[in-house]
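Bug report (template v2)

What were you trying to do?
Predict the complex of my protein with adenosine-5'-triphosphate.

What happened?
Run completed; filing so the output is reviewed.

Input:
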Amino acid sequence: MTAQRQLLIKPTFLQNMLALPGKELHQIMEKVNMLTGDPEPAGKVKVPFQRYWQQGIRLYRLRAGHYRVFYTFDKQYVAIWTLRRRDESTYEDEVDLEDDELTPEELAGLEQAAANARQRPDWDAIIAKMQPKEETTPFPEPITEELLTRLRIPKIYHARLLPLKTREALYDCHGLDDETILRLDEYMFEKPIELIQQEPTLQALGGVDDLLRYKEGELLDFLLKLSPEQEQYTRWPLHASGPTMVKGGPGTGKSTVALYRIRSLLQQLLQEKSTAAPRILFTTYTNALVKSSMQLLQQLLGDSMRYVRVQTADTIATDVLHKAHAYKDILDEKTLQEILHKAVAEVRFEGSPLQQRAQRQALIRMGNDYLRQEIDTFLVAREVESLLEYQCMARTGRKYRLNGLQREAVWRVYERWKELVEATGQETWQQRRVRAARLIDSLPSYRRYDAVVIDEAQDLEPAALRLLVKLCKAPNRLFITADANQSIYGSSFSWKEVHQDLNFQGHTNILKANYRSTQEIDEAAHSYLTYGALEPIEYTTHYVNSGPMPDVRAVLTANHEIQLLKDFFTRACNALRLTHSSCAVLCPSEGEGRQIANDLRVEGLEATFMSGSDLNLKRPGIKVLTLKSAKGLEFPVVAIAGFLSGRYPVIDEQAPEDEQAEMLARERRTMYVAMTRAMRALLVVVPAQHENELLTGFDSTYWNLSSKQ
Ligand SMILES: Nc1ncnc2c1ncn2[C@@H]1O[C@H](COP(=O)(O)OP(=O)(O)OP(=O)(O)O)[C@@H](O)[C@H]1O
C-alpha cells in the first residue's frame, strides 16, 4: 500500500469548494482523498495538463463527475490548486488530450518540456488575455439565492446582487465588501492558472476532514506551508549554544519564520516540565507590525496565544521606566531643534583661538542635522561616556570621517545639549532606551521571558537591543531577524558591540527564496539599490513568482500623475483579478499622501491616507501611506508617487559631501524598502521637469522605461 501524502491546497480551491453543492462535494472529497494515496497519472483519469507543462508548471487533472480537479504532487505531498466544471467548448485543448492516452514516451517528452520551459512566461500576452475584451462581460449563469447561500455571501448583500448580470456591474456595485466581489468573480470567471500558481500553498494537516470542516464553517483558516529551508529555522533547538539570527532579502519570509519559531518554541517549552507557564516575547519595529503580527500569531497559536506578549521595544522601555518609577515625558520635535541650536550657539571650546575657530567651522560644515544624528544614534544610543572614549571609537556606519578636533567640537556641543535637555525634565527616545536598558538590572522582580524573538532588528538601536537581550532568560533563547539593506533609520553596527551575548557565530542563516514579490520587481529594486546598499545584495537566489517588469513613468503635472495612478490601478486590478483594496500609493510625506488620496477620491476612487499610528489595512479602497510607514507591510499593487513638488529627498546641500552621500544612501534604502512592498505590480512616478538623485538609476534591463516622458 502506498503511503498517504500530505494534503496541500491553494486558496482558489477553497473558494471553489464553497460553491459546490452537497452531492458533488462528497464525490470531489473522495477523489481528493484518493489522490493523497495515489496521484500518479493513470489512463484517461489522471493526466498531465500539457499546455502548462510546456510552461514549466507540472499540473495534472483528474476527472471527477462534472468537474476536473487540478493538482500537482511530489513524493511528500499532493497540492490541489483548483476545481473546474467540465465544459467541452471551453477546454478544447483538454478534450484533445483526454481522448488520447499518453504513452510513456509522450510523458517523458512533457517532462523534458517542463524542464526546458522558460523561467519567465510572456506576461504581456497573459495579461492581454486576462483583460476584458468587450465593454461588458456577462455572467455565464444567473446569480440566484441558492448560489449566494452556497458561496456564504452575507444575506444583507443578496438583494443588491440578484439583479446583476455583468462583471462590470459587480465591480461597480456600491456597498459590497471586497471578499464578496472576489468570491463571486472567482465563481463566475475561472482564475488563470498562472495566478493560482502564485497563491500561497496551505496545509490541510487533518486531510480531507479539514476541508469538510472548512465547508461547514468550523475551521476558518489554514496554515501556510513553509519551505524546508524555512521550516528548518523554525526548529532551531532550545538548547543551542547561542542566539540565532535569520537574515535574508525582502520577502524571503523572515517575519513568517519568526512567527512559526514562536510556535515551535512554545511547543518545546510546554513539553519541558520545569517551565511553569512559558512566557515568550515577540517584538517588532512599529505598532502597525505589532497589530498584524498579533493577528497572525492568534491564527497560528489559538489559545496558546496567552503565553505570548507582542510589543515594540519602545513600549517595553516605557513600561520598564514606569515600573522603576523613573518615567519622563518625551521631548517634542520643535523643542529638540531649539535645544540643539542653543547648544551650538552657547558651546565654549578649549585650545588656542585658531583651534577654537576651526572647531566652530567644523560644526558649521557638519550642519545641525548631521550633528543631531551623531548625538542621537551614536553618542546617546551607544552610550559614549567620555571624550577619550569618543576619540578612540570606530564610528561604524558613519561615512563622514571626523578628526580629533572635530570630535572634540561635537563632544562639547553634546555636553551642553545634555544639560539643556536635563533642565526640561524630559528626554529623547534614545535616552529613554538607554535608561531602560540600564534600569532593568535594578528591577529583579521584572519578569524575564523564557524566549525573545526580535523581528526587523536592523532598525533597533543598540540600547533597545540590549534591553531585549536582558529580558531573555538565556542567550540561546534569542531569535533575531534582520536585513541591513532595509535599514532606514539607524546606521549599521556590529552585533557583538551591542552585547556580548549577541554572538551569532555559527548561528546565522540566510533565507534565499523570495515569496512576496515577482522576480521582476525584486531584481528591479535590487538594481536601483546598487548605490546605497549596506550589505551585498545578491542574497536572493530563488523566486516563486514572476510577472511583468515594473514601470517608471515621468509626469509634468499633479493631474497627469493622478490619471496615471488611476489607469495603473485599474489595469493591474483587472489583470490580477483584484479590487482597489489591494492597491497602495507610497509617498514621501504625509502632505503629499493626503493630497493624492484626496485627488483619487475626486476621480471617484475610494482612497484613504493612513498615518503610521493609524493604519487600518482592512479598510476598503486604496491605501495611501508614507514610504516609511510601509516598512514590513506588503500590497499586491504598489505605486510610489508624490515627488512633483521637488522637495524630496531633503538633503542639506551645505553639509559635507560624504554626509550628503550618506543621507542619499539612507533615502535610497527607504525607496528600496517601499519598492519591495509590491507583490505583483509596481509603478514609480517621477517628475519630468527636474532631475532628482533619488529618482535616478533605473536600469532599463530591469525597469520598463519605454513610456518615460
Ligand atoms: N513558504 C512560503 N510560501 C508561501 N508564502 C510565503 C512563504 N513564506 C513566506 N511567505 C509569504 O511571503 C510574504 C513575505 O513574508 P515575510 O513578510 O515573512 O518576509 P520578510 O522576509 O520578513 O520580508 P521583509 O523583510 O521584506 O519585511 C508574506 O506574504 C508571507 O506570507
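What did the reviewer find?
The first strand starts at residue 6 and ends at 9. The CA atoms of residues 134 and 168 lie 10 Å apart.
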